[in-house]
């Protein structure tokens, strides 16, 4: 399958600072990227969907000013957690797919964010 | 609301035995895809098997097969000849064009494989 690389794998940041997470499709052009959040021992919850060159569509309850998503190219999407707080500590996972209803979405390795 | 229900938080199976993980879903869409994903301790999501709703034949991938009952909105996963490496969280998911092709996940089933 295709490869999606997410970086960093883990990050610790101080409360009040911002942190950026990158999601790259290494061997295909991703027209759509998805960002999920996973709390310990829980399921993946969709945060937002981003299409290349467009503004991201956020799920209800997700603060778009706090979780800034940029999808400026067909191979890169970034999630920036602004003014992070301890409650933002979580596991963030991206996935990417090419357009077309029968195509797969491939997942990055995830990023464990700890805000102290 | 569109939902996925996995009623078994934990399951246990002995090595070489067969186990079935259950999943039910609710959608008003007629065109959708169903998936089972495995998440080992590394937390990398791995696609196990997928099923197109318009296909009547149950999907099979080596030791993994599904029982897709469209009318009942049921999509169970059978793992045959279980191996120690099958131990993981298993998530049932579906996607529709209405959801922008994002995956809607169940809460997961933790599978323990004992020697």
Short description:
The complex is a heterodimer of chains A (about 120) and B (about 120). Chain A has about 120 residues and is an all-beta fold.
Report the uncertain regions of chain B: none
If you average the pLDDT of chain A, what whole number results?
Answer: 93
Strand content of chain A: over 45%
Anisotropy-based shape of chain B: globular
Helix content of chain B: under 10%
Largest sheet entry of chain A? 7 strands, mixed
Main interface: chain pair and counts: A-B, 22 and 20 residues
Radius of gyration of chain B: 14 Å
Spatial gap, N to C terminus of chain B: 41 Å
* Oligomerization category of the chains in this entry: heterodimer
Unreliable residue stretches of chain A: none
**What fraction of the residues of chain B are assigned to beta strands by DSSP?**
over 45%
Rg of chain A computed from alpha carbons, rounded to a whole number of angstroms: 13 Å
For the record, give the distance between the C-alpha atoms at the N and C termini of chain A, rounded to a whole number: 36 Å
Helix content of chain A: under 10%
**What structural category arises from helix and sheet content of chain B?**
mainly beta
Largest sheet of chain B: 6 strands, mixed
SSE string of chain A, helices as H and strands as E: EEEEEEEEEEE
Nearest-integer average pLDDT of chain B: 94
